[in-house]
Amino acid sequence: MRKSIIGVAVTALFLLSACDDTTESIGISLTENADHLAVSSSSFQVASRSVSVNSVVSRSTTGYLGRIKDPETGSHITGDFMTQFTWLEGYQLTSQDSISSRDSSGKIIADSCEIRLFYTSYYGDSLATMKLTLYELDKPMLENRSYYSDFDPLAEGYVRSDGISKSKAYSLLNISDYITMKDTSEYVNNICVRLTEPYTDKNGETYNNFGTYILRQYYSHPEYFKNYLTLIKNVMPGFFFKITGGLGSMAYVTATQLNIYYRRYVNGKDSTHLTLLSGTEEVLQTTTITNDAAAISRLVNDNSCTYIKSPSGIFTELTLPVDEIMKGHENDTINTAKIVLNRINNAQLSLYNLPAPSTLLMIESDSVTSFFEKGKLANYKQSFLANYSSSANTYTFNNISELIAFMHTAKNRGMKSDANWVEHHPNWNKVMLVPVHTNYITYNQSTVLTEVTNDMSLTSTRLIGGSTPISIQVIYSKFD
Question: Which candidate, 16, 21, 38, 7, places its Cα nearest to that of 332?
Answer without folding.
Answer: 38
